[in-house]
Amino acid sequence: GMAAAAAAAAPPSSLLLVVGGECGCPGLLAYVLEELERGVRSWDVDPGVCSLDEQLKVFVSRHSATFSSIVKGQRSLHHRGDTMETLVLLNPSDKSLCDELRNLLLDPAPHKLLVLAGPCLEETGELLLQTGGFSPHHFLQVLGDREIQNILASRPPPARLPALTITCPTFGDWAQLAPDLPGLQGALRLQLRLNPPAQLPASEGLREFLEYVAESLEPPSPFELLEPPSSGGFLRLAQPCCYIFPGGLGDAAFFAVNGFTMLVNGGSNPKSSFWKLVRHLDRVDAVLVTHAGADSLPGLNSLLRRKLAERQEVAAGGGSWNDRLRRLISPNLGVVFLNAREAAMRLVRGEDEAELALSLLTQLGIAPLSLSRGPPPAQPTVLFQKMGVGRLDMYVLHPPSAGAERSPASVCALLVWHPAGPTEKVVRVLFPGLPLPNRGRPGRCC
């Protein structure tokens, strides 16, 4: 009875599961669920203190779901029981993730578990969130936060140090995390355990829990991912302008002059960062993919998927004319410049985004053109020319020769707008692509 009363008085054990990014294909979803199962089963919480199997069943039936009004697509599933508090963070922004990590570090619970799972890069293990990447470097910044350490230092010391079990990717840059943790234990007043082996057997509660999370991670349809605008009408951009859309691990850029429009890369977020602008255009005249990978193609592939889904809608018929009209709003696509035949950067168990792009383009009847510099002197490709208005040239600076475009080498291109008016300024925009060799953090597209 005394032990039960003491357990009831203690704060509940705390469990934080984080699933970054959209799981856009079955392979990714299976990988993320395996990582979640590995994480939960690695927790050595005492069954006398907390029956994990029972608490996971309670979570499935009683949790509350919150959709973020600030970060679209982010969801929190939460339940606080007598012996366990669980928070599952789905598709979060980096700010939301860091906020919840701080809360977990400051939580007085004696037993804490953190599971970091989600789509991640094959080479470095960097987790893909909605708004960027989350690497061991970012994680150590949160663990080493002085403000957190000062708050903990101001509290009376606990009789026994709480334990925090952390599971995260075990390869790439995460493999270097272990030596940094012992030095943080004193300041954080925590026993830290990193990626311990499985302690618990598979259980009914865990199976129910993972099934529920899998349903929550079902990828949205192309129409849910890229929503139609609330108002009609097309946008026409006359003056030379260049917009940069932060897209997570890689940006997208959009250049326009006198009604001619060009999209450069798609960014790493499948919820295309450029969509809110291009959905108001009747046509994107050119698409330039400087390099093919998980940082540059997912945003573009979502647009191609939507175009394909629109065609299928038209063929299928049904629904009111207005409904169908609202959905069929993606711009027509002109020429697509894409070199690589395979992705230089991939997600663990994810699709090859370059192969996917080529397949979608084929289904849409668009044959991509490859780019190379060719022999000197450099000859530009004229993208747009109108008497009395001006001419838009594209110079390819890299790769040097035809054939090189089959390699993962990045395209470096210079756009030059020559206005017809003698008083108007020449405008030059350089898209340097990726630095090579590509090691470590991906470069920006623009």
Task: Explain this structure.
The structure is a single chain. With 446 residues, this protein is α/β, with parallel strands linked by helices. The chain folds into two domains: 2-216, no CATH class; 222-431, Metallo-beta-lactamase, Chain A (4-Layer Sandwich), CATH 3.60.15. Helices cover 29% and strands 23% of the residues. The chain has helices at 2-9, 26-41, 52-62, 94-106, 136-143, 146-154, 182-188, 204-216, 222-225, 275-278, 298-316, 321-327, 353-363, and strands spanning 13-19, 64-67, 75-80, 84-90, 111-117, 127-129, 132-134, 163-167, 191-194, 241-245, 252-257, 260-264, 283-289, 332-338, 381-386, 390-398, 412-419, 427-431. The strands form four sheets. It has a seven-stranded mixed β-sheet with strand order 2-3-4-1-5-8-9, sandwiched between helices. The protein has a five-stranded mixed β-sheet with strand order 10-11-12-13-14, with no helix packed on it. A hairpin with a 3-residue loop joins strand 15 (381-386) and strand 16 (390-398). The longest helix has 19 residues, at 298-316. It is elongated. The N and C termini lie far apart (66 Å). Mean pLDDT is 87; it is low at 2-8 and 436-446. One of its GO terms (biological process) is dendrite development.
